[in-house]
Amino acid sequence: MKEKIRRLLKERKAIMLAHNYQPPEIQDLADLCGDSLELSIKAAQTDAEVIVFCGVLFMAETASILSPDKTVLLPRKDAGCPMADMVTPGDLEKKLKELPPMPVVTYVNSSASVKALSTICCTSANAIDVVNSLDEKEIMMVPDRNLAMYTGSNTKKKIHIWEGFCPVHDRLTPEDCKKTKENHPDAVFMAHPECKPDVLELADVTTSTSGMIRYAGESEKKSFIVGTEVGLLYSLQTANPGKKFYPASAGMECIDMKRITIEDIARSLEFMEGEVKVPENIRRPALKAVQRMIDLSQ
Ligand code: 13P
Ligand code: SF4
Asked: Which residue range(s) make up the domain with 270?
């Protein structure tokens, strides 16, 4: 099956992108693994004709926004993101009417139609820089309340918070973390900004998934507690074979990030199944918000 995928990737002039949470066999096959920001940048730069996105729907949509002339395939249509579904364009428009005019900073974990209503996008890797790049003092951040609170505590801006959250990160408790820290007293605790504020208070480092891979690689420390989706442990261990990584809680698994299988990828490439295409009337305004973020991050 893996040979078949390699052959099909060549035949179709395709590139395979995988998020850091994807299962090991998919990460091993991919041309590039990364966090949401790295994958967006790669999707914008590649000259491949087809992008097979191993992640969730909002990531494939972002690739389609950036590369309208390429075919973007999501091997499983049901790989979504519950947090992205916590804000609809209608609800956002209603909320914005209740507030004085202000820029909207939208986490990439959102639908293309919500991005289309936004001033600029952000990821977990650049949220603070994105907010600080804006002149206005009051800013609306959607949909992740935890990322918004974390950003708010690291800027002088007044942040208006949307009540969305990632069910995987939001269920990590300070008690879980304290217990894991007791079991591994020398380990550095790295947490993702999608975690709750009381968890982030206990963290030594708060950063994106690829930020954790870089931090662990550069650190002199030998052991790390990982406060994010458990799929990242494989990427961390592969990049740092001499170091030890422990999940902050074993329950942090995102079922959506585990839906795509090797068989799904082969079928998708063979029959060009699972195309994701953002309609032009949504793509154009969404592109402005995504491109503004990419320009800032490069
Ligand atoms: P990053 O890889 O950008 O840190 O994002 C985490 C995430 O939840 C993606 O769904
Ligand atoms: Fe969405 Fe959370 Fe899964 Fe990421 S880990 S795809 S934010 S539900």
From this structure: 2-80+257-278
- Cα 124 to ligand 1 centroid, rounded to whole Å: 7
**How many domains are contained in the chain?**
3
Q: Please tell me whether residues 16 and 152 are part of one structural domain.
A: no
Tokens found for residue 12:
């179709």
- Is pTM beyond 0.70? Reply is yes
Separation CA 14–CA 6 (nearest Å): 10
C-alpha of residue 100 to centroid of ligand 2, in Å: 31
pLDDT digits (tens, 9 = 90+) for 6-19: 999 999 999 999 99
Task: Output the CA 71–ligand 2 centroid distance in Å.
Answer: 24
Q: Is the CB of 20 under 6 A from ligand 1?
A: yes
- The mean pLDDT of 23-30, rounded to a whole number, is 96
Query: From the CA of 259, which ligand is nearest?
Result: 2
The position carrying tokens 């380990």 is 187
**254 touches ligand 2 (CB under 6 Å):** yes
Separation CA 87–CA 35 (nearest Å): 22
Question: What is the CATH classification number for the domain harbouring 73?
Answer: 3.40.50.10800
